[in-house]
Amino acid sequence: MNAPQTTIIGNLTSDPEIRFTPSGTAVANLTIANTPRTKKGDQWADGETWFVRATAWRDLAENCAESLVRGTRVIAVGRLKYRSWEDKNGGGTRGQVEMELDAIGPDLSRATARVVKVAREKPANNPQAPVDDPWAAGPSDTTEPPF
């Protein structure tokens, strides 16, 4: 996929919601809010708050659920995607821009963090694979992104 990466800085509106697909792949959903501020004379004024729904997959999803909580100021990097659906109440087609995360972490200008490297286990179906090989488990379900 050649979609350009986008960076968003904002606060989490709630704890990341983690779930697992039927194949056992972790997916976390979170919402990042940002309120732009502008200076008017000597005063700062808040603009309209905007919200971006974001999705993390696999190890990133599990790390989000273990590390991030509501209110954390984060820096998120990923690709924006547009998702559309038919309104169940006959309201026509609806849509939303979402971010598929490649990386996310706390904004260290507002907090401190202690980094702990995650130890990866060898996949059961390939015990000879290097521990740090993310593709060692073989191909994933094609409905999920390859990262």
Summarize the structure in words.
This protein has 147 residues and is mainly β. The chain has a domain at 6-106: Nucleic acid-binding proteins (OB fold (Dihydrolipoamide Acetyltransferase, E2P), Beta Barrel), CATH 2.40.50. Helix content is 7%, strand content 44%. The chain contains one helix and eight strands, in the order ββββββαββ. It has one helix spanning 58-67, and strands at 6-12, 17-20, 26-34, 37-40, 43-46, 50-57, 73-86, 93-106. A five-stranded mixed beta barrel has the order 1-3-6-8-7. Strands 4-5 form a two-stranded antiparallel sheet. Strand 4 and strand 5 (43-46) form a beta hairpin. Mean pLDDT is 84; it is low at 135-142.
Concise account of the structure shown:
Helices cover 7% and strands 44% of the residues.
Number of helices: 1
Structural class: mainly beta
**Rg calc:** 18 Å
Assign the CATH topology of the domain at 6-106. Answer: OB fold (Dihydrolipoamide Acetyltransferase, E2P)
Helix-strand pattern: EEEEEEHEE
> Overall 3D geometry?
flat
Which band does the percent of strand residues land in? 35-45%
Named at the architecture level, the CATH assignment of the domain at 6-106 is Beta Barrel
CATH evolutionary superfamily of the domain at 6-106: Nucleic acid-binding proteins
Q: What's the assembly state of these chains? A: single chain
Helix content: under 10%
